[in-house]
Specification:
The protein is of the alpha/beta class and 500 residues long. Helix content is 49%, strand content 11%. The protein has three domains: 140 residues, Response regulator (Rossmann fold), CATH 3.40.50.2300; 181 residues, P-loop containing nucleotide triphosphate hydrolases (Rossmann fold); 149 residues, Helicase, Ruva Protein, domain 3 (Orthogonal Bundle), CATH 1.10.8.60. Helix 16 crosses helix 19. It is elongated.
């Protein structure tokens, strides 16, 4: 029997920054071949059998072990089982010239073997495998450190979480629903606050831009589910096939382009609230699938055969009259009653003119801060002009109009004259100097081409500011291609710093 004298301290390689690979193989030629393949990227240690390898492991930190399967005494898999128990951080790789060994087949999982390499191995493949093993070990150590840090910081994180939750409840509570005393919105908010505490589905109706999403968020943060997620999806924004995947998830390979598993919004919101905006735009086929999820409390990701339980509260919204859609056969009646546990209706802005002034004050502060112009004020009579306009686009239109006014005004006080013609005419503001102010903004000298160029630059500046220099959106509003818009900006000398 061969005897082994463990290496003394002087025989150990000098420490450096290279990862350490221990090669365990009873054939010296195999050791040399592996060394030649790896020695540029790694520090190589060698052992001819398990006893010698144990000596290295007790004296030297090792990143990766490359172990031959057939050695004198202990087999490679049997030795790596021991390594897993005593040195679990070391990545274990077995090399073998045999594929029918029952020991290998049954022992790979028990030994936690990272990779099985069949002889004769390819140098490039071996090198890449060891590199990947070192990366995996580094990543695992990083995750372990992060887990330890998170555990030690748990009390601080819990305190911060509670603070953030309190801020969210304040930011998205019913007080966020700006309204004047006696507003029709008061009754809506009062009813919503009462039903928020009960785990009932809510259906919110009303025109686009009336604030249905704000009401849904307020309901969530006033409910027992407030500490869990609030997720939303606009059902009209994507086709049914993608909507099913987005809400319920899909398995890898379920369809073309499904390269990995995808967790749907319902699972992400487990314990919380799902807000389905424009639910009236969904097809009957999708309505059947949604109904099944709501009835059974479980879903099947696309391409999966296993049902996943989910616990969510559904708040849905639509600008359509769903009762009429049901009567017309375009919306399932059974789904309607599943969604309409409680129905709320957001009144249009024209039906609550007293709310326009406080909403405009809030928006002026918010949009002004976003555009880098805080502290703006309304000129006398301006809010009265806004209150007389019908606002068919509701709050969304009001916000856009205020952004336009800020972009076109160089003063700290916003005058009526910077509003669009439709607002000036609808609000009866011409007699108050609105049209005069608009005309005064036009160039008063130069050729027709020069004057048109100035007007064109003004329009581009206003649209770009309103869209925060998003050229794609600005081009779409102006009916231009992105290339065409860029050409105009270059011709007119408009740069982002000039526009802002």
């Amino acid at each position: 029997m061969d005897t082994f004298a463990p290496p003394d301290a002087d025989a150990l390689p000098d420490p450096d920054t290279l990862p350490v690979v221990l090669v365990v193989d009873d054939e010296v030629r195999s050791q040399d071949a592996i060394r030649r393949t790896l020695d540029e990227d790694f520090r190589i240690l060698t052992a001819s059998h398990a006893d010698e390898a144990r000596q290295w492991l007790t004296r030297q930190a090792v990143d990766v072990i490359l172990c031959d399967q057939r050695m004198p005494g202990l087999t490679g898999v049997a030795f790596l089982k021991e390594v897993r128990e005593r040195w679990p951080d070391t990545v274990r790789i077995v090399i073998s010239g045999y594929t029918d060994s029952e020991d290998i087949i049954t022992g790979i999982n028990e030994a936690g073997i990272y990779q099985y390499i069949l002889k004769p191995w390819v140098p490039d493949h071996l090198l890449q495998t060891v590199r990947s093993a070192v990366e995996a070990r580094t990543l695992r150590q990083g995750l372990d450190r992060l887990d330890l840090e998170l555990r030690s910081a748990a009390p601080v994180l819990r305190a911060r979480s509670q603070k953030k939750l309190g801020e969210a409840r304040s930011a998205f509570g019913f007080e966020r629903m700006v309204r004047a005393p006696g507003s029709p919105l008061e009754a809506v908010c009062a009813m919503a606050q009462r039903v928020a505490r009960y785990d009932l589905p809510v259906l919110i109706g009303g025109e686009s831009g009336t604030g249905k999403e704000l009401l849904a968020r307020a309901i969530h943060y006033a409910s027992p589910r407030h500490a869990q997620a609030f997720v939303l999806e606009n059902c009209a924004a994507i086709p049914d096939t993608l909507l099913e995947s987005e809400l319920f998830g899909h398995k890898r390979g379920a369809f073309t382009g499904a390269f990995e598993d995808h967790i749907g919004l319902f699972q992400r919101a487990h314990g919380g609230t799902v807000f389905l905006d424009e639910i009236g735009e969904t097809s009957p086929a999708f309505q059947v699938k949604l109904l099944r999820v709501l009835q059974e409390g479980e879903l099947r990701p696309v391409g999966s055969t296993r049902a996943v339980p989910v616990d969510v509260r559904v708040v849905a919204a639509t600008h359509r009259h769903l009762e009429e859609e049901v009567r017309a056969g375009r919306f399932r009646e059974d789904l309607y009653w599943r969604l309409a546990g409680v129905t709320l209706h957001m009144p249009a802005l024209r039906d609550r003119p007293a709310d326009i002034a406080p909403i405009a004050e809030r928006l002026l502060a918010e949009v002004g801060a976003e555009l880098g112009r805080p502290g703006l004020r309304w000129a006398p009579g301006t809010l009265a002009c806004l209150a007389r306009y019908a606002w068919p686009g509701n709050i969304r239109e009001l916000r856009n109009e205020i952004a336009r006014a800020i972009a076109l005004s160089d003063e700290e006080t916003i005058e009526p004259g910077v509003f669009s013609v439709r607002v000036l005419q609808g609000g009866g503001c011409e007699a108050r100097g609105g049209s005069v102010a608009a005309v005064q903004a036009l160039p008063s000298h130069g050729t027709l081409a020069e004057r048109l160029e100035v007007i064109e630059a003004m329009v581009l500046r206003e649209v770009l500011l309103r869209h925060r220099w998003n050229k794609t959106r600005a081009a779409a509003e102006l009916g231009l291609s992105r290339v065409g818009l860029r050409a105009k900006l270059q011709r007119l000398g408009l740069e982002p710093t000039q526009v802002g």
